[in-house]
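Give me structure tokens for this 315-residue protein.
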Amino acid sequence: MSMRTRCAPPCSRSRRDALRRIAGAGAVVAMPSLAAGASSGAIERTIPASGEALPAVGLGTWQSFDIGTGDAQRAAAREVLRRFAQAGGRVVDSSPMYGNSEQVVGELSQELGLGERLFLATKVWTSGRDAGIAQMEESFRRMRTKRMDLMQVHNLLDAATHLKTLREWKHSGRVRYIGLTHYHRGAYADMQRWLERDKPDFMQINYSLGEREAERRLLPLAAERGVAVLINRPFGKGALLSAVRGRPVPEWAKEIDATSWAQVLLKWILGHPAVTCVIPATRNPQHLLDNMAAATGRLPDPAMRKRIAQYFAAL
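Here you go.
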């Protein structure tokens, strides 16, 4: 869910150089390793409940897609979604909490003719069965779909009520998967209890080098219970990128095929075997390409993940 903060020189120069190597002159066309999806070598992870494969880098929409009809912002969001799909991306995560984001995703995906190519995920964020049903029906309308790939209970709000509805909807085919979300460690004990007693298809939580608490119990428990994991706030609301602003990417980043700090941070997350997909948010087409490149090449092994963590801890 985190949005990217801009780097100041010389970070921005090195980042532009890296993006030129990735995107060349023609953006997505110059990314054959991602354009063809699974067959191209892009990193994918499977959903334990079904075995379905998903690209390891998705797209969040918090703030980035909460926009009006202004030409510049809408054009940028449209280009991000176009490049995302052309690069093999599928998971697009939203919520009624995110202002206009659901509506923008629905309108742009329809304009671009993406149809069934995207894996649409959103949330229910209210209390009560009737209110939940009404809100979810509105999300279907706004996102221009008759079947939602993933419907999640946002921040565990009235989870018992909504999960009952969602189990009925999954049985009838209205939703394909159901999940639970949160963004704060203060809710981890509650999330743990839900995973232990209910086993949703997905859990979405915050996890990054700046917020590592999930790796103590929730990530191992998800792996143990066969629950897919979406990761929000991968850049710690931009704080992690701010911490390395002006610093060149170290030589050791080449060992995991990373050419930018964003890729280092995303690859560190994907190096955890319990993580299914990370969903950074952006409305910047170049940042989108940078993020997608994290789903190619090598991922850090435990030793490299420790090395990366030590580097950031020393900043």
